[in-house]
Specification:
The protein is of the alpha/beta class. The protein folds into three domains: about 55 residues, lambda repressor-like DNA-binding domains (434 Repressor (Amino-terminal Domain), Orthogonal Bundle), CATH 1.10.260; about 130 residues, Response regulator (Rossmann fold, 3-Layer(aba) Sandwich); about 130 residues, Response regulator (Rossmann fold). About 45% of the residues lie in helices and about 15% in strands. It has a six-stranded parallel beta sheet with strand order 2-1-3-4-5-11, with helices on both faces. Strands 7-6-8-9 form a four-stranded parallel beta sheet. The chain has a two-stranded antiparallel sheet with strand order 10-12. Helix 9 links the parallel strand 6 and strand 7. The radius of gyration is 25 Å and the shape is elongated. It starts with a helix and ends in a 12-residue tail after the last strand.
Length: about 350
């Protein structure tokens, strides 16, 4: 006896019969009764292996991040995995290493495996071609009942979003550094095609402009410890004129601190240093790092809740997560001009 014969006897589609016999709640009661009666009358026995495969489908949560070894992403992923575990949902995790093509490939794979939800952790790319490719992958997945939620700004994706307030946090940091007397800044920036970088650099520069202070010098490098080291070394090689460096992520600030020490530049006596994110390690640096603290684990918990919420009303939801400036010993007040 086959599932198709049960569906025919019940007068329903094969998909409806499959949902009923695999325990799905998304079937009207009268249809459920018909399928169960037909299965009983025909003595239908489901294939245990096939049934297990179906149950596995639409249960997995896929997490795609730029680099799970980066403490920023691992902090968010930790919160997301805890939230998924509380709902008894297994998690698949992948790192794209900021490669847009790899990100698209992972989404395609999760679609094929019928993941219940896809979570994108990390900024979108300022790239129209990537946006079109994302739409082509996620549109059919969403239409088929899949769920998508993201952390950070993805201009083209009309899905539920946990949005860290990067622009506002960077502006608040700039104002705090200005209050310490700094007027000459350099920014250690990640790739300009990342929306997070655009927002953090833009917020910082705007606050300087509003205060009538010259724009910071921007040095672009990879969004990593090595990138921070490289950008700082480049600044030092041409003569460091700034009194304060702003690294657009804490991991870049860690690399910057190492480069400054290698060149005999003291922090904060010779130059102040600030970062963004408040990953756990920066409190243990010498000196501890001034930064903008984001609630990373809470962001992970919230993106899971958004992905799995009731979408019957069809409204997109955006949850904004504010950053808090935390002044530590890596930044010093400049003496007042004589």
């Amino acid at each position: 006896m086959t599932l198709q014969q049960v569906a025919t006897a019940a007068g329903v589609s094969l998909a409806t019969a499959s949902r009923v016999l695999n325990g799905s709640a998304r079937v009207r009661p009268e249809l459920r009764d018909r399928v169960e009666a037909a299965a009983s009358e025909l003595a239908y026995t489901p294939n245990a292996h096939a049934q297990a495969l179906v149950r596995a489908s639409w249960q997995t949560v896929g997490i795609i991040s730029h680099d799970v070894s980066d403490p920023y992403f691992s902090g968010i992923a930790r919160g997301a995995m805890r939230a998924a575990a509380e709902r008894d949902l297994p998690v698949m995790m992948a790192s794209t290493f900021r490669d847009p093509e790899r990100e698209i490939a992972y989404i395609s794979m999760l679609r094929a495996q019928r993941a219940r939800a896809i979570l994108l952790i990390g900024s979108g790319f300022e790239d129209r071609r990537w946006e079109r490719a994302m739409d082509a992958e996620l549109g059919p997945y969403l239409s088929a009942g899949g769920r998508v939620a993201v952390v950070s700004r993805h201009r083209s994706l009309r899905v539920d979003t946990v949005l860290p307030q990067n622009r506002q946090g960077a502006a608040a940091l700039a104002r705090s550094l200005l209050s310490l007397g700094h007027r000459r800044f350099a920014v250690l920036s990640g790739p300009a095609r990342l929306s997070t970088v655009v927002d953090r650099v833009g917020g910082f520069q705007r606050a300087l402009a509003e205060a009538g202070v010259p724009a910071a010098e921007v040095v672009e490098a990879p969004f990593s410890r090595e990138g921070g080291h490289r950008a700082t070394t480049a600044l030092l090689s041409r003569g460091l004129d700034s009194t304060c460096l702003f690294a657009t992520t804490d991991v870049m600030a860690v690399g910057a601190l190492a480069a400054l020490r290698e060149h005999g530049v003291r922090v904060p006596e010779d130059v102040s240093l600030a970062g963004f994110d408040d990953i756990s390690v920066v409190r243990d640096l010498t000196p501890p790092l001034t930064t903008v603290a984001l609630p990373l684990e809470e962001m992970g918990e919230r993106v899971v809740a958004l992905a799995l919420r009731d979408h019957s009303r069809g409204r997109r939801r955006i949850e904004r997560m504010a950053g808090t400036v935390v002044l530590r010993a890596s930044t010093a007040r400049l003496p007042a001009p004589q």
